[in-house]
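Q: Sequence in, structure out?
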Amino acid sequence: MKNYIITIARGFGSGGKYIGQKVGELLDIPCYEREILTMASEKSGINEAVFAEIDEKLRGSRIRNALRAMPCERTIYPQDKEFVSDNNLFQIQSEIIKALADEESCVIIGKCADYVLQNRPNVLSIYVDAPREYCVYHIMQKMSVSEKEANKLIEKTDKYRADYYRYYTKGGNWVNPTNYHLFLNSEKLGRNNCADIIANIIREKYL
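A: Exactly. Output:
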């Protein structure tokens, strides 16, 4: 098979982003998360200042050409409270995810990528989570917040992700095991071991 895609959904604080990046390093493939928003900005004409914190650019002319060829109308960036109802932006992101999947092997974190690519045989979909205490501890360390604040961030972020998934998948359950090929507990296994497990599955199945 020409290429393969790994999608990673993750509970907030579980280390899913780190695991995705580590998998990318192990397999020598790019890992996309917020970079997809930058691509959406470049494609749609949304004010680049909205994505000022993102400095990762597209890799190679093939991807750029594929995105330029996509039909797209201009849109505006939604405020947080309206984000889950902005179908146009989600459509742009979905087309970018499909274009990436067509052109290269990569890791895609979040963005309902498991749903967007659900009918493709070369996709491995993963869900990463961990017990609340583990997530709270790591958020406290990473973001320098109190335990109370960390708990609030987890509740808010995981609710947002679940609502986002439910809306765009027309009622899908974000944490339904049947959406994914594999569920991983990053506390029980360790983040690096999770990355090793995913990389080994890819090597056995696709390489």
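The chain has nine helices and five strands.
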